[in-house]
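Action item from last meeting closed. Structure (350 res):
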């Protein structure tokens, strides 16, 4: 832990030496954030759980609780410049606070374990833990107090509000309690979804390129090669468009379920493809192939939209399961119909 690049020294305490974390993010931190946003090394981007110091904290300094997902830890420490505080990092298995609270790794038991493991009662005289508000679903505050003798105070939603929150005597304004999910928050999700889904969609596109050579009397390599650019482009567009459009347009898309919101995007994409085909802008093939593409685009957009349920403030875990139970069978039927139409169109056009 003391060898981490962000550690700038150590603070002596009755429970031993505590690493001091810098509040300034280095180029390594920024590069790490970029790679994580591109889904590279996501589950390995962690901080060792334990107690950290920021500034020159005393026994009376506040104790802020965070996850060991390094992006969460970096976001917190970078907002504490000029402050003296302790950061208690829980072992959330590399998951951010909000998701970890839902999965149970940011929860009562881990807080109790970490308070004991760090001998926090010997380090601080104050008996309050400041938890992020988004971690509340996984925590039983009264049980934490019963087992540790530390009271629980829920801090603001955004780390940027922590300095003001502390200056106000740990009193949060209504604005600090409000969970926002603005266009910037939603746009950040796009790169990681593109990278995660790239392998699957490239595989699907490759299969469709190969199937493009189907003819009634067998198989034509020349036909497959001739149609390959168009088939690949339409297959990739079927994935890329909803990945970009769904999060950007999320508040304005009709319906509560993400599958429905995605279906609206897919339907709009299908209409656009139909108009473009009839205007001669694109050539998706014959009539049956066009219908196949339209059905496939709608099914895929609906499915892709559901990937955002775990990254938004719009759904609960039970709601996600309920939506999947209803939506996936319908998406599968529509995708199967799309495949039948497209293959039938290839054969009919041979």
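Sequence:
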């Amino acid at each position: 832990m003391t060898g981490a690049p962000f550690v700038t020294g150590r603070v002596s305490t009755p429970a031993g030496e505590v690493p001091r974390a810098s509040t300034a993010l280095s180029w390594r931190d920024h590069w790490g954030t970029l790679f994580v946003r591109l889904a590279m090394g996501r589950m390995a981007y962690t901080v060792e759980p334990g107690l950290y110091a920021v500034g020159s904290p005393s026994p009376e300094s506040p104790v802020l609780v965070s996850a060991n997902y390094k992006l969460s830890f970096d976001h917190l420490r970078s907002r504490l410049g000029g402050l003296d505080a302790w950061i208690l990092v829980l072992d959330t298995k590399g998951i951010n606070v909000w998701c970890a609270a839902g999965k149970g790794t940011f929860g009562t038991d881990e807080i109790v374990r970490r308070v004991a493991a760090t001998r926090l009662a010997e380090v601080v005289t104050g008996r309050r833990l400041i938890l992020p508000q988004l971690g509340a679903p996984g925590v039983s505050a009264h049980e934490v107090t019963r087992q540790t003798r530390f009271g629980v105070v829920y801090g603001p939603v955004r780390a940027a509000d922590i300095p003001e929150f502390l200056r106000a005597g740990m009193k949060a304004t209504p604005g600090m309690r409000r969970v926002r999910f603005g266009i910037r928050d939603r746009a950040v999700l796009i790169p990681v979804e593109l990278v995660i889904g790239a392998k699957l969609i490239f595989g699907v596109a490759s299969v469709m390129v190969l199937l493009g050579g189907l003819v009634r009397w067998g198989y034509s390599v020349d036909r497959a090669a001739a149609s390959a650019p168009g088939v690949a482009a339409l297959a990739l567009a079927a994935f890329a468009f909803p990945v970009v459009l769904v999060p950007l347009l999320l508040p304005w898309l009709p319906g509560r379920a993400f599958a429905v919101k995605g279906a609206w995007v897919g339907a709009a994409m299908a209409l656009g493809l139909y108009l473009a085909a009839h205007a001669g802008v694109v050539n998706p093939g014959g009539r049956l192939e066009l219908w196949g593409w339209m059905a496939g685009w709608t099914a895929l957009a609906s499915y892709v939209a559901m990937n955002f349920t775990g990254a938004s403030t719009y759904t609960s875990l039970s709601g996600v399961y309920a939506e999947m139970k209803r939506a996936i069978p319908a998406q599968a039927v529509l995708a199967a119909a799309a495949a039948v139409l497209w293959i039938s169109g290839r054969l009919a056009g041979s």
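Note appended to the action item: The radius of gyration is 26 Å.
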